[in-house]
Design goal:
The N and C termini lie far apart (61 Å). A hairpin with a 5-residue loop joins strand 3 and strand 4. Helices cover 28% and strands 30% of the residues. It is elongated. It has 140 residues and is α+β, with helices and mostly antiparallel strands. Helix 1 packs across helix 3 and helix 2 runs antiparallel to helix 3. The strands form 2 sheets. The chain has a 3-stranded antiparallel β-sheet with strand order 1-5-2.
Length: 140
Amino acid sequence: MAEEIYTVRAYAKGVDQAPRKVALVASLVRGRSVADALVILDHTPKRSALIVKKAIASAAANATNNHGLDGKTLQISTLSVTAGPRLKRFKPASRGRALPFKKKTSHILVEVSGAEKIRKKPAEKKAVTPTEQPAEEEKK
């Protein structure tokens, strides 16, 4: 019996960090198992490591709780970082001027794939006949 591989997604949209900085951290864990990726991101001294870790943990939780996949078999199949909307802001400068700049945001897509949990068959219940029932003692 061949195990079927299922894929589950999680998104982190509108992350307040430039996509170039988030993509640096994402490339560290792309293609690894979920357990390995979470350990690597715990020890990565970048601000975006926490954001990527939360997105991966969310995808893993979706897979185990909502879709019945085995947490030990989860692999990161896709981890992509794309640019989100840019917010136009201004910085005050000398002589009353305002210099424009853009605050960049990111969207993170995580897809994890894994095998379905093996479910145990429920134990069969024995039919109780009236002769097998224990006699109740009457206390009076």
